[in-house]
Specification:
11 helices; alpha/beta; single chain; Spore Coat Polysaccharide Biosynthesis Protein SpsA, Chain A; elongated; about 325 residues
């Protein structure tokens, strides 16, 4: 089994990731750390810290200049020949049973290309004492399995939860290194197009660590580089659409686009009608408020007049006495 760890200048989270790997109860693995243009000395020192426990199972691939997220992933994949592969991002972590349960599932289900572990999102923020957890929640816990219809909208699982057979790369190719982000989504779509992917169990075994407020090298790409994700989403969808048009023509996309335009126009008309009705309601409310103000003013004057009349009558009685 090959564990691919991409990293660049994040020693603190990389140390946590290495501990997560070394804590696995499943012992038959090799890890390739792809240092994508970061300081080589720092990586070497971190690996040396764990030399005894690693027992030669960790090696490093240094890149003198960055190749990007998916270029680095491909370098790790091609540096091994293991039949099972998983990407372990340098800021994520596993339950100690992750490898044992996921590899066991694929061993007993030879017809499956891959398997997913239930995932918890762990929110954290940097403080003086280090990264501190501020909350957590389950990711996509409502799905029994991942279907193609699910992934067409957006990615439903992340690399830290996904163990798959190397034969997928032989069939589908490597990750799309032209994408600045979402290369895993593109690969996952191609995988699920072959068959749905099951969850190994209902127990969370993978932990996706997020730091929503952090930018720069220590941030998560979904927060710190959200523009890359938006571009990758549009770019990949456009690439697939062009491939479809070249093979099958413009007919279906034109038909669907016209249908979408008609629906958008109808939705816009409904929205305008709702806004017009809201304007009428607001105008009625304003008129009602004005009437209430006038009524309150008239009532106040009536009460004042009656009070003044009562006082005048009392004074007259006192004078007569």
């Amino acid at each position: 089994m090959a564990i691919i760890v991409r990293t660049k200048d994040r020693p603190d989270t990389l140390r946590r990731a290495l501990s997560s790997i070394l804590d696995q109860t499943f012992p038959r693995w090799e890890a390739v750390i792809v240092n994508d243009g970061g300081d080589p000395g720092t990586i070497e020192l971190l690996v040396d810290e764990h030399a005894d426990r690693a027992a030669g199972r960790i090696r490093i691939e240094h890149h003198s200049s960055p190749r990007g997220r998916w270029g680095a992933a491909n370098a790790g994949v091609t540096a091994t020949t293991a039949p099972l592969i998983v990407l372990h991002d340098d800021d994520d972590s596993w339950d100690p049973e992750f490898l044992a349960e996921t590899s066991g599932y694929l061993r007993t289900h030879p017809e499956e290309h891959a398997v997913i572990a239930r995932t918890e999102v762990i929110l954290e923020e940097p403080r003086a004492e280090g990264l501190v957890e501020t909350g957590r929640y389950p990711l996509e816990d409502h799905n029994a399995e991942v279907l193609l219809t699910d992934l067409l909208q957006f990615n439903r699982f992340v690399p830290i939860s996904f163990l798959y057979r190397r034969e997928l790369h032989e069939h589908l190719g490597l990750y799309d290194a032209s994408l600045p982000a979402a290369g895993d989504w593109a690969f996952n779509l191609a995988t699920v197009a072959l068959r749905p992917i099951a969850y190994v169990s209902d127990r969370p075994l993978a932990y996706w660590h997020q730091r929503p407020t952090v930018r720069g090298v220590e941030g998560n790409s979904v927060h710190a580089n959200d523009a890359d994700h938006r571009f990758a989403d549009r770019s990949f969808r456009d690439k697939q659409l062009r491939a479809y048009v070249q093979a099958s023509g413009l007919g279906l996309p034109l038909y669907l686009t016209e249908g979408a335009r008609v629906e958008e126009s109808a939705a816009s008309a409904r929205a305008e009608a709702i806004h017009a009705r809201l304007d009428e309601v607001m105008q009625s409310l304003r008129s009602m408020h004005e009437r209430m103000d006038r009524l309150e003013h008239d009532l106040s004057r009536t009460i004042d007049t009656r009070v003044r009349g009562w006082v005048w009558r009392q004074k007259q009685r006192l004078r007569r006495r």
